[in-house]
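Field notebook, page 257. I keep forgetting to write these up properly, so this time I am using the form the group agreed on. The chain and the ligand, S-adenosylmethionine, are recorded exactly as supplied. Prediction of the bound pose follows.
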Amino acid sequence: MHCEKQKRVITMTEKEKYALEWNNSAQYFYDHNSYKHLVAHISKFKTVLEIGCGTGQSTLALLEAGHSVIAIDQNAFCIEKAKQLIKASGYSVIENIGDLAPKTVFFIESDITNPSFERDVLPNIFPDVVICWNIGSYWDKAKINDAVPKMIEYGLSREQIAENTESSYGELIFWRTCVIAKVKQCAVHLVDRGMQKITKFNDPYYSFLKRELGFSKIKYANMKATTLSKGGRQLISNGQVNTQNEMPIIFISILMT
Ligand SMILES: C[S@@+](CC[C@H](N)C(=O)[O-])C[C@H]1O[C@@H](n2cnc3c(N)ncnc32)[C@H](O)[C@@H]1O
């Protein structure tokens, strides 16, 4: 009698899939020195609060430049990958925020749009700059149900959200990041990926943030780069991850003090 092997179906959650795919995209940016160039814009700030650290390649670049880093992400799979990368690269992941020192990182798993972040995390951290680079998220039903009311509360209409959920979410997170910087009375550095350069002459949005939140200065910088991903996802052609087609992009850097 043959013993039929039971087929085990391995299902991956959207969160897990996101971590795997972003890891590839971020490694590409790291290998092409993109993070190194972004880090240069915040060199004068010692302690960095990194919102949405992803799989840690950006965090690693911050540590390599000598910063103390408090790295936050809502996705436990991303944090796990980030910790592995940082340790494998010879840097210390500390367990107690009181031990934070240059070239060390303290990870926090938290969603910055949840009240618990403001209540439990924010009072205990003291950054010199808050950064939010390349924001994006996994999307499943639960995430949409959670995020849409927050985007509406922020001021977007259902139509705007339906038209482009990813960029609507990005707007919400950038706004929250700026609010956090204001609460902590420090600078903020936002980085987005776009197709065209943004300067003070065609700024669609950041100058409103500056005015609304009362920052006194805004500095624009644009950096040409290439990517293998679009919207945080790897490009897939014919069912295969596409590692051939590099696409030109621009990293838009906005520093507000
Ligand atoms: C596209 S990745 C960018 C990672 C990193 N900043 C970089 O440039 O490589 C965006 C990360 O932000 C995280 N994120 C999105 N929304 C968040 C939130 N509300 N709170 C905390 N992290 C969030 C996601 O889980 C994801 O890991």
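OBSERVATIONS:
- The pocket of S-adenosylmethionine is lined by residues 22, 26, 52-54, 57-58, 72-75, 78, 111-113, 133-137, 173, 232 (CB under 6 Å).
- The longest helix spans residues 165-183.
FOLLOW-UP: compare against the apo run.
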